[in-house]
Amino acid sequence: MIQARGITRTYQTHGSFTGDRTVHALRGVDFTLPDGGAVSFIGESGCGKTTLGKILTGLETFDGGELVVDGVELSKLRPRQREKYFRRIQMIHQDPYSALNPTRTVEATLGDPLRMRAKETGAPVSAWRERAAELLTLVGLEPAAVLPKYPHQLSGGQRQRVVIARALTVDPTVLIADEAVSMIDVSMRLGILSLLRDLRARLGISLVFITHDVATARYVGDGGELHVIYRGEVVERGLTDEVILSPVHPYTQCLLSAVPVMRGLEEPGPDRTAPTAALDERTPTPGCLFQPRCPFAGAQCAETHPVLVPFGADAVGTDAAEANVTGADVTGADVTGADATEESGHVHACFYPESRRVVGVEVGAASA
């Protein structure tokens, strides 16, 4: 199990023309990934999704908050002590073309980590070839045909499957899929997505799925939680289907409204909307981060920063409303009248929440 509590990451940039600037990549991100579960993060480019993935795999540090893996808070350990925990968490990189060493065959790529793993577990080192063939078969490749080849001799889909096989060589318990299908031909994407779902079911591996594609997040993260990130901050969180079918935060609604509609099979959602302005991160926003672009913003949005609160009529009218004004976090509070929402964990950071239907509706379903 992975628990992230208030993870923050800030960068200081220095440019000759742009000057010094502070970039808040992550602003207090919280989530829990249960064993065998799935958590998806969606948002536009630059919102902090990849930074979060790198932090979870130990490739990046964080400024504040806590990262707990199997009950152990990693920030309290020395770097060498953290290695065994980060080894359980492997990343599937976005670009399969640059993720593999072009001068090494697939056999060499898989062989080194498998031999190291054999020494750790006490298994015969000579058994690594058999394990390599087993992993390639698991990800849907023919071992005899793939092992002697170099990356440039493989298709994009085959390379990504080799990347997944390499991640599995150390027997991870968590996979971080960072835009795992964005650079693969559309015809091959479904195969990779089905493979990720199959690995969850067969091996019990937990999955963190990072993407800007809502459809893939819904497919892979079925039954898990969906987190919507805007400028490093989670603005809405809940069960994947609930957030997609009944989004509450205006940013989530704008994001889902951008999903293409299959003409002839679907009709546009009746409440589709769009941001009122382009993103400008240099403009100070003391209130809601989305306020300068929000089509439903009010006066309060520009002055007070909202926090995550449960969605529900009573919750917004009582404790949640007070917490939104004062800046307190009541995501764990006992708010009466919102039992159904609390069971699903659907929370948002908006002063004027309203559930809207923005995704495509199957033809004939809207009138039924």
Q: How would you explain this protein's 3D organization?
A:
This protein is an alpha/beta fold. It has 3 domains: 1-88 and 174-190 and 200-245, Rossmann fold, CATH 3.40.50; 100-171, no CATH class; 248-362, no CATH class. Helices cover 33% and strands 21% of the residues. It is built from 14 helices and 14 strands. The strands form 3 sheets. It has an 8-stranded mixed beta sheet, with helices on both faces. The chain has a 4-stranded antiparallel beta sheet with strand order 2-1-4-5, with helices on one face. A two-stranded antiparallel ribbon has the order 11-14. A hairpin with a 2-residue loop joins β4 and β5 (72-73). α4 (106-121) crosses α5 (128-138). The protein is globular. Residues 313-343 have low confidence and may be disordered.
In short:
The protein is of the alpha/beta class and 368 residues long. The chain has helices at 49-56, 79-86, 96-99, 106-121, 128-138, 143-146, 156-168, 186-203, 214-220, 240-245, 250-257, 313-317, 319-326, 339-344, and strands at 2-15, 19-33, 38-42, 64-69, 72-73, 89-92, 174-178, 206-211, 225-230, 233-239, 266-267, 309-310, 347-348, 361-362.
Blueprint of the fold:
Blueprint: E1 2-15, E2 19-33, E3 38-42, H1 49-56, E4 64-69, E5 72-73, H2 79-86, E6 89-92, H3 96-99, H4 106-121, H5 128-138, H6 143-146, H7 156-168, E7 174-178, H8 186-203, E8 206-211, H9 214-220, E9 225-230, E10 233-239, H10 240-245, H11 250-257, E11 266-267, E12 309-310, H12 313-317, H13 319-326, H14 339-344, E13 347-348, E14 361-362
Parallel strand pairs: 3-8, 3-9, 6-7, 7-8
Antiparallel strand pairs: 1-2, 1-4, 4-5, 9-10, 10-13, 11-14, 12-13
Helix pairs in contact: 4-5, 5-7, 7-8
